[in-house]
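Dear U.,

For the methods section draft, I wanted the exact inputs and outputs in one place so we can describe them consistently. I've listed the two proteins in the order they'll appear in the manuscript figures. Please don't edit the token lines directly; just add comments below if something needs changing.

First protein:
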Amino acid sequence: MPELIALLAIYYQCAALAEDGLLTQQERFACNDTYQQAKRLFLEDDLQNHDAKLDADQNRIAYLRLKQWEAENSDLIQDWRRQ
């Protein structure tokens, strides 16, 4: 859980900076990598190869689990987005 919190805090800061056009292309790619790492945490028990690229089904499941977690922790998410 601490790893998820750290990754998402970074990602939401990145997203805010990206919305304002303040990130380079390289920084945007790094932000996306952070987001992908966060999603992977929702599949840890399902992944046999933790370094393999997610297939379409795994990506969808990870995304939906992340969105569910965000809904359950909306106060925390709002705090991060305000910073």
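Second protein (the one for the lower panel):
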Amino acid sequence: MTDIENLEHLIFRIFSLKKSIKNKVNTNSCISPLNGENPNLFARNFIARLERLAKKFKGDTACLNDIAERVKNIGEAKNSGWAGPYSELVALDFYSQFSEFFNLSYINQLPIKNHASSIPALNGQREIIDIDLCLHLRHDNIFTDVKSFNCIHQNILDEVIEAVEEYSLFTLGKSVMIGVDNLSSLDYTEVKSHLGFEKRSIYYELTNAVSENMRIFQYESKSGIVFTFRIEYSDTISTIKEYSPFAMAEAYKYKFLDYGSKLLDTEYSVITMVRNPWFNEETVDFGDFNNIFYRSLARRTFIELNRIKDDAAFFSSTYTNKKIKVRDVAQNLAGIIFIDDESPSESDEAQLYSAYVYLNPNYKNKKALTIRTLEKYFRNERERQIKDFDDFKWDNY
């Protein structure tokens, strides 16, 4: 049975829905561990998550179909492309733990005509605003779209490195492994804007380096970023990684501009970021690293970007209306919730997730959310998963 066939059987067993995936030989690092007689810890957590969701939304045919479709999407993905649909399932499972205090809906399609002054409407978006989840609180709705917190630098380079390793094996007869030093503090905007266009150039220069048996090769991008590639002619690779949570926050401070299409004008808009070590090796979860990084990144997004009057289009290609400023986007974002998924290593379901909740004191559309108004909705035996909760009341300067 292929990994895809196993996934199709899994979907039918849990949801009683038939989902067919065309490429029966596709695989990736998410579905491969699911296909075995003795499931590993990640597989057990993955399957248990689906069973919880099937039980939680039993009777909601549309929702169960959407969930099953996301599982199907995971199977269709190549490389780290599974991170997106997987992250939606993680977020849905996390919020479901607290849904005794609020109703939860998944998927939400909002007519854009009802949100005429929203960022997506001003940017020329038509028909609908598609948002993954809505937390229906007692007096308010919180709409949150879910994103995977993956390493954009590694996503771009993985495809190139895989192609070079295949070239080396099948053309040169050499088994090599290639790694890259220090990606964590590289500027997100620079990498996203330029590196993707240089993949072919990197490929050719790396194949030449492998042909000449080089062990260290440096590539300088057109924007001046220098990447140090380490090449090992064996089955192990060691790269140099120097991590600073503050340097990473500086590098990623414009990241949330990319999500302006998910921001509403009359309802609270929150972005949920899901991190799993299998699709993000940048955050190291050592000591308080992730907490410091997430808090610093949220603070820069809410407070530093609030002071920037430059065009958002200068930092993100998603904007066509140059009247939309960086500060406009920042002020329309009510909060950011980071969720660390520990499925590969955690056997205790009650500690499967670590969440970090940050609220924007400069949110402009309604009264800004605060710890006091929100924390009561996350009070039960699973609340210990929330590791940090801050509304920056004393940091807004």
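Candidate sentences for the figure legend, describing the second protein: The longest helix spans residues 152-172. The mean pLDDT is 91.

Thanks,
Y.
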